[in-house]
Predict the 3D structure of the following.
Amino acid sequence: MFERFTKDARAVVVGAVGHCERSGGEWVEEAHLLLALLDREGGRAAFALASLGLEGRRDAVERSLAEARRCGGLTRADADALAGLGIDLTEIVSRVEEAHGEGALTPGRTAGGVRRPGRRLFTRGAKDLLSQSLRLALAHGDRHIGDEHLLLALTARPGVPSEVLADHGVTYAAVERLLWGQAGTKAG
């Protein structure tokens, strides 16, 4: 499938691996793909993100992603569901961190911070996102996967990255409308 990726989309995937490595992670996650999209300049995704007001708000996105990782990768919807059962997620996180150290619930954290050498693998969610980007490209009549398809797939999938994007006004409908217009025609 990687042969269908444009130069910009490939750069996003390579950038996601770099984010994973710099953070000491074992697995490339959807959040790494989001951060790599934010790094890009000049592509259709960068145009969409800037047009929707996300330019210059990277720190806020990173803080939101870090807070979600600290809570085991749970979304606000997950926290609300737990609250409905009488479970206070903030209290659980505090107690676990008190007993096991800050960030103890962070997904992909390795014991003692030691990581196995070698290539970074993609989580099931990240792989599914890449597959979904292909389906979205084909649905828009595109033979190749661009960075805009990766962004659209991120906004379409439930989870922390789409929640963080939506908090900043970047939704599936907004990206779709901006890049393809109301009738689904290409923009840019």
User: Anything to note?
Assistant: Residues 2-71+118-180 form a domain with the Double Clp-N motif fold (CATH 1.10.1780.10).
